[in-house]
Design goal:
The chain has six helices and ten strands. The protein is of the alpha/beta class. Strand 4, helix 3 and strand 5 form a beta-alpha-beta unit.
Length: 208
């Protein structure tokens, strides 16, 4: 497929680009700098732009078959939700329907999967702006009318790609959930959704 990846230089986005290329996809990496870490591949195009610029986003989306979104702003808010709103508008303007977006475990009806620490200390205090940004981001996606899948990973790790993880849960937490998942396995799951309708217009959780 011909894909465009937003958040391509983030910790998940970089792995998404690498795995998508390894799977044979044609990839456009949308970055603020117009650079992507020296990676050379005939199927990689790097586009410079600001996700908060709706015209720039729409222009970049033209000609693609699907969008992967892994926008981040650290602990801050103000990028994920408005950036995703621009992506949705750009997809509609260009007739692109498939969107796989990384959110976070704990958003929406998956709050029950969180421990007290994550619910009240991390998302309740330390990461509150980022959490609220994800909540609004998900609202935009659900109301978009597109063929979306929201992927809700647990806490990121730097572990390897295993392909062995739990997915699909939302309100009810499976027994033994570790509340962590490697960035490589997040990318593995997101890319797999491009060839599957199993989670079309759903928000599966993702964790070991």
């Amino acid at each position: 497929m011909k894909l465009i990846i937003f958040g391509a230089t983030g910790t998940v986005g970089k792995v998404l680009v690498e795995q998508a290329l390894a799977a044979g996809h044609q990839v456009t990496a949308f970055t603020r700098s117009g650079r992507f870490g020296g990676l050379k591949n005939d199927n990689l195009q790097v586009v410079k732009g600001d996700v908060l610029d709706s015209t720039c986003v729409s222009t970049a989306i033209a000609g693609h078959e699907a969008v992967l979104c892994a926008l981040g702003a650290g602990r801050k808010g103000g990028v994920r939700a408005p950036g995703t709103a621009n992506i949705i508008a750009g997809m509609k303007a260009n007739g692109v329907r498939r969107l796989v977006c990384q959110s976070t475990l704990g958003a929406g009806d998956s709050e029950g999967n969180l421990t007290f620490f994550w619910k009240h200390v991390m998302f309740g205090l330390l990461l509150r702006p980022a959490y609220e940004d994800h909540q609004l981001q998900e609202q935009y996606l659900r109301g978009s009318g597109l063929d979306w899948t929201i992927v809700r990973p647990a806490a990121f790790t730097d572990g390897p790609r295993t392909g062995n993880y739990q997915h699909g849960f939302s309100g009810a937490s499976p027994r033994g959930l570790e509340l962590k998942i490697s960035r490589a396995d997040i990318a593995d799951f997101m890319i797999a959704q491009l060839q599957s309708d199993d989670y079309l217009r759903q928000a599966p959780g993702l964790s070991y």
